[in-house]
Write a structure and sequence with these properties.
alpha/beta, globular, TIM Barrel, 228 residues, 18% strand
């Protein structure tokens, strides 16, 4: 079933990319394996997935070890809220941390990355909606936040991430995705950091096609791949 689901997702990506004249290869699918077994992760990788996302560090550690031992090569993503007391382990296993939303967290990542001689790739999580339950740097504070974080020597800001409000109509997510794209373009245009923001991590199972239309480079897909 997982293989068939991935084939369907890839076809949907190709269809939407053809409509807007984008190359499907410009889209990275991160298969979010929260609560899924190692066997399910293996099935996804065998079906062409190269990037696996996790919401919890401890769960990720167990899967990472088993997949690495089995010889699987993949990129590991932290897509859930990251607590500072989990940073040491996170820096050791994740290639990209999507959810940096405070200076305290960024400084902890920088400190732990320095200890192992690593420059950690991160995304800044931006709160584009007013929902109280959403994490993220407030939209109006992103410029100052990025200026501060960009000074940390063992971090590279690769782009931005957001989570749109849950809705029964994917089109209702469009303004939030558009807002993030415009923010990325503005930051790059003003050259407020020493790096060019390239990644827009936005779009999940229920709204990823709209996210692609608005410029998403990275999709975080769980249910549509693994079912349930």
């Amino acid at each position: 079933m997982i293989k068939e689901n991935i084939l369907k997702v890839n076809e949907r990506i190709r269809t939407i990319c053809a409509m807007i004249n984008r190359a499907p290869s410009s889209i990275t699918v991160v298969a979010v394996a929260k609560g899924r077994s190692v066997q399910e992760a293996k099935e996804a990788i065998n079906a062409g997935i190269t990037d696996i996302g996790e919401n919890r560090v401890q769960e990720a550690i167990l899967k990472y070890k088993e997949l690495k031992t089995a010889g699987y090569k993949l990129r590991n993503h932290m897509v859930g809220h990251l607590q500072t007391n989990k940073v040491k382990d996170a820096v050791r296993i994740f290639d990209l941390i999507h959810s940096v939303d405070s200076l305290r967290l960024a400084q902890a990542i920088d400190k732990e990355a320095a200890k192992i001689g690593k420059v950690q790739d991160i995304l800044i999580e931006v709160k584009t909606s007013p929902e109280a339950t959403k994490f993220g740097v407030p939209y109006e504070g992103v410029f100052g936040f990025i200026k501060e974080v960009s000074q940390l020597k063992n971090i590279t800001i690769r782009g931005l991430m957001t989570i749109a409000p849950l809705t029964d109509n994917p089109q209702k997510a469009r303004p939030y995705f558009k807002k993030l794209r415009e923010l990325k373009d503005e930051i790059n245009g003003l050259r407020i950091t020493n790096c060019n923001l390239q990644i827009l991590s936005m779009g999940m199972t229920d709204d990823f096609e709209v996210a692609i239309e608005e410029g998403a480079d990275m999709l975080r897909l769980g249910r549509v791949i693994f079912g349930g």
